[in-house]
């Protein structure tokens, strides 16, 4: 991964279109590692995600559509934003064909673009702590329920493919009580920006 720089962010790869998300949630989750996520030009390199499939008891869509999760049942390539524990917003990318109701939770970023804005929003300076968790990164990027159901390939959201190969690690997901054994967390094994390290 390119190092953090306050003056020259790493170059961006090609912009990802909604068709990118119309595949297996696991393929998308794997391929998002190393991609760059920006909201109004602020963001960074995705270093950690989790996959949630509609057959998975931990998925919000497992018991069917509700007003909150309705966007998960729509076409792929849209944002699903929800409040976690009544405190933090979390952002997910809807995947697979319409009706599948599968999504990738974005867990951590390496900040590369708009660090001043992120530090202001998070009220801290340590770049490693700005986006090292799903609630932290949404606060840093200014993501709220207003971003729910927005397309992932139009402003204010932009996603860019990774520009270099990365070694993708897998492990069990974090902070859930169902299907805890599934190795559906993906990330950069040795990244200093993870919410939690991967086992060696």
Helix and strand arrangement:
Blueprint: H1 25-32, E1 36-39, E2 42-52, E3 79-84, E4 88-95, E5 102-113, H2 115-122, H3 127-130, H4 134-141, E6 157-160, E7 168-171, E8 185-188
Helix pairs in contact: 2-4
Describe this structure in words.
- The protein has 200 residues and is an alpha+beta fold.
- Helix content is 14%, strand content 26%.
- The chain is built from 4 helices and 8 strands, in the order H-E-E-E-E-E-H-H-H-E-E-E.
- It has helices at residues 25-32, 115-122, 127-130, 134-141, and strands at residues 36-39, 42-52, 79-84, 88-95, 102-113, 157-160, 168-171, 185-188.
- Strands 1, 2, 3, 4, 5, 6, 7 and 8 form an 8-stranded antiparallel sheet that branches.
- A hairpin with a 6-residue loop joins strand 4 (88-95) and strand 5.
- Helix 2 (115-122) crosses helix 4 (134-141).
- It is globular, with a radius of gyration of 15 Å.
- It is an enzyme of class 3 (hydrolase).
